[in-house]
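Board notes, transcribed. Complex of a protein with S-adenosylmethionine.
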Amino acid sequence: MQNQIAVWEFFYEKRDIRDKKIHPAVFPIALPKKCIELFTHRGELIIDPFVGSGTTLLAAKDTGRNALGFDLKDEYVRLSNERVSPQEKNNGTQLAICDDALNVGEYLEDEIVSLCITSPPYANLLNRRRRNKSIRGDLRQDKHYLEVQQYSDDPRDLGTMDVKKYAETLGTIFEGILPLMRQRGHCVINITDYWWKGNRIPAHIYVIEAIQSVGFELRNTIIWDRRNLVNKAGIYGWPSNYITLSTTFEYLLHFWKP
Ligand SMILES: C[S@@+](CC[C@H](N)C(=O)[O-])C[C@H]1O[C@@H](n2cnc3c(N)ncnc32)[C@H](O)[C@@H]1O
């Protein structure tokens, strides 16, 4: 019954990576863990096409599921594999591979994946200098001020693309993933809307359309309530403008293979 509440909250634990220099955008281990426990059984296979620091692999190991992750950046793949080593008997096998998410289909047979849980880059959201506009006064010029926290300049990196090209590419990637999924296999995508050059970009709408267009069915829209993770926020926009803090929530879009 508790899981029927569509607003979820998570806390980071010690093993979570919070240093943006190691990886700029990780989700807490508790997030993939909840999805894994809801949608799969022990011994089943999970994939994360944008595995980053390997959070999904750790959650899979904790719950005894097999998992395969992909990332373009060798450095992240190495980190992911380090975090799940040594491999343990009876806890499944977890592995990260350095490759484009477009090629996931080259590694797997059809109809064997129970869950695809992932947080793709939020289009080109990180591809700009951080101005910390939501932080007050002197605190604004923290150690990340004016930093660009982009994953890479690789043109295959979804984080380099504007939202339309991004959605199109994400669609192609999930078109390749659909045949790998079992019937009614689940897919959870973490995404957020954001501001870009003064315009609100409803990225979750683009993503829903792209994923549906290749044959997945949208099942649930879940809100990840991040208010417990927002700190040192100032008031901005007031009194001439009304701007909500993008960081207060994100979407978890739940699909399945019909
Ligand atoms: C939001 S991060 C994922 C973070 C991950 N959930 C974690 O907790 O560490 C997105 C990742 O996608 C990777 N990426 C971007 N484009 C990619 C592509 N075409 N194929 C595979 N990985 C890609 C980036 O290198 C980045 O690590």
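Residues 91 and 210 are 34 Å apart (CA to CA). DSSP finds five helices and ten strands in the chain.
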